[in-house]
User: What shape does this take?
Amino acid sequence: NWNMKNFVEDQTELIKRQVGDRKVLLALSGGVDSSVVAALLLKAIGQQLVCVHVNHGLMRKNESESVVEVFKNQLHANLIYVDATERFLGKLENVADPEEKRKIIGGEFIRVFEEEARKLDGIDFLGQGTIYPDIIESGTKTAKMVKSHHNVGGLPEDLQFELVEPLKQLFKDEVRACGIELGLPPHMVYRQPFPGPGLGVRCLGAITRDRLEAVRESDAILREEFEKAGLDKKVWQYFTVVPDFKSVGMKNHERCFEYMVILRAINTVDAMTATIEKVDWEVLEKITGRILAEVENVNRVCYDMSPKPPATIEFE
Ligand code: XMP
Assistant: This one.
């Protein structure tokens, strides 16, 4: 009979058989799929798994720290942490076009990963968090995006590995159940979707450090307040964006000219269409008050009322 406990045991055996005494390399972004595949590989082959976490400087607040804490400090995985923040922000300087930004982030991600792979000896396998919908929905935008940013598929000829994809028969809810079975923390397993290019597509237009900081801090406040209000379990995706223009305001009796934060909270089944969440006025006021008091360079907060279509979920 099929249950998650048996699935984990069967896959552990299959992975051991496939890998033998050789090594597996895994790009561990900290997303649900890569985290679960990391935990499963760790259970099967322990220190023969080499995880690489690339921090592109566009992660949410404390996200990379949490990947290191869980996988390195708690689970004692063989984890290489690469802080590539300066490199990514350098390449992105003055680049305003959304597609160009995505291309730079995706391309640079592969190059950083490839450089790390070259430093390592005797790697034969590449672990991947491919799940069933990635295979069947490969024609949709979302799946393609996921592919271009997470399926390190663009590696050069001399870096071709055999793939280990133990989750490829599972749907998302089964992947989460597998993560829980493997003992991963619920905050990691029930994480809301987060785009590969991260906060890079939420810091609209050409990325600047002050606005990137405003996106990161306001996003952290939004998530904290949604959690307190129990909305984190109810709403499919919620985040903030910061546009690249300023508006006039008043702070300490003086005119100021600063950025705005836009809040977005949506529900969807398949991300192809989406409706907005009717967030309680009190919750919105609380979030607005905190952002205006705690986030630098911001004097205005707006709530995005647009469904998809015609708007997409993200802004870029
Ligand atoms: P849109 O903005 O197209 O987003 O309505 C649909 C869903 O896809 C997510 N998204 C991405 N996920 N890499 C990802 O892994 C990406 O590049 C990417 N772009 C958008 C988005 O957050 C939403 O859930």
In short: The beta strands are 23-27, 49-55, 78-83, 123-127, 162-164, 237-241, 247-251, 254-267, 275-276, 298-303. DSSP finds eleven helices and ten strands in the chain.
